[in-house]
Amino acid sequence: MKGIILAGGSGTRLHPATVAVSKQLLPVYDKPMVYYPLSVLMLAGIRDILVISTPADLPLFRRLLGDGARLGLSLDYAEQPVPNGLAEAFRIGARHIGDDSVALVLGDNIFHGPGLSTELQRHARDLTGCVLFGYPVRDPERYGIGETDEAGRLLSVVEKPEKPRSNLAITGLYLYDNDVVEIARGLEPSARGELEITDVNQEYVRRGTARLVDLGRGFAWLDMGTHDSLVEAGQYVQILEHRQGVRIACVEEIALRMGFIDSAACYELGLSLAKSNYGRYVMDVAVGAS
């Protein structure tokens, strides 16, 4: 399975903080926002990842992440000059996807919970159709909402429904088989002129091959699209890290735990950041694993 991080857009809801820098490069407590979606793909066992962003911001992502080799990954980059909808990622990333299945994660989403890696790998294995991830919300009128049958088969997806049939919001993590490339190519722009991810999902619903996994209790899903949600996400990460003594979305530690790099390489990564608590944590993790 290939991975795509969609980190485009102009972040207008976060202006003026994002006038000069991509939203996905802003800090969320102790690390850049993009580390969080990157860590999700890594936990799914995905090592071949495409980062899509604006022409102005791509050099900054390259400076931060490089080619991924230090983490045992292969990272590539592609431009989305104008935010023409989430489904455009599959047109832009068609060559990257090739004949493989693909996981798309939005660059401003945090997913955290016990057994996340196992859950993601289970659904990514032998994928047929699409697997979406739902999260129960109090105000479903504000989200794209999925309705399922008892077996978890997705029956409908409705954007901001007036009368929601469930409270499961569709999160910013999507797993698709290779058919998604042709489905995206065949989409017509919406009234907003965008290629809508909901239209992709509706096609899988029509085929009867769409599933919705309820992340449920014990998991956290955070969408950092506003100033308040950005602060709340940082506070969530800070509290958990201080209380548990572990760091959420520490990509160096995940690379080590997943077997992408060895403890010596992990230690060197920590040493390069040794003046920060984050770097010292990575060094301690490497020593503990050696």
TrEMBL record:
Catalytic activity annotation: dTTP + alpha-D-glucose 1-phosphate + H(+) = dTDP-alpha-D-glucose + diphosphate
Record GO biological process: hexose metabolic process; polysaccharide biosynthetic process
EC number per UniProt: 2.7.7.24
GO MF assignments: glucose-1-phosphate thymidylyltransferase activity; metal ion binding
Domain Nucleotidyl transferase: from-to ranges: 2-235
Names of required cofactors: Mg(2+)
Enzyme class: transferase
Keyword list, A-Z: Magnesium, Metal-binding, Nucleotidyltransferase, Transferase
Family: Belongs to the glucose-1-phosphate thymidylyltransferase family.
Free-text function comment from the UniProt entry: Catalyzes the formation of dTDP-glucose, from dTTP and glucose 1-phosphate, as well as its pyrophosphorolysis.
Protein name: Glucose-1-phosphate thymidylyltransferase
Organism: Actinomadura harenae
Gene: rfbA
